[in-house]
User: Fold this.
Amino acid sequence: ARIAGTETEIIRGLNLSVLDGWWAEAYDGLNGFAIGVGHTHRTTDLHDRRDAEALLGAAPRLRPLMHKPRPDDLVVIGTPIWVWNMASPVRSFLQSHHATLGRVAFFCTFSGSGQDKVFHDMQVLCGHAPVASLGLSEARCAPSAHRAELAAFVGTLKAGRAAAQMHAPVQ
Assistant:
């Protein structure tokens, strides 16, 4: 059951709710916990399913890949952060394909926090460190606000690609 913010303060409770209504305005990342990132979905069922999957660390089944990654491919994997977790389809992908992922890079978007945990979880599922990672907060996703960070991320990817091509066996 949801408890209104003023009632929570009176009974010294813990604020935990989806980011809608008063909690979307009051939540600052330090005064409690948020479920989801405040995005709305086409239906409440979809919204509830995504929040539950994030909370439970669920891994839904995915359609088969059209192109399976090769060990020498650089696979860039991105996810929004939902409830301090990667999106459940990303978790499924990493669980299903970790053995074929040679080189990876990670990026994530988030409104509050959680990028360090998510990058760690992604690395654990892959079994090795990424060649680069980039976390963009909601504020940094504003037009042009992320330009320097994105350029550095792409530069690292290009440098990693060039290094891999130098070490690739001649066919």
Notes: Confidence is low (pLDDT under 50) at residues 1-11, 166-171. Residues 96 and 123 are 14 Å apart (CA to CA). The radius of gyration is 19 Å.
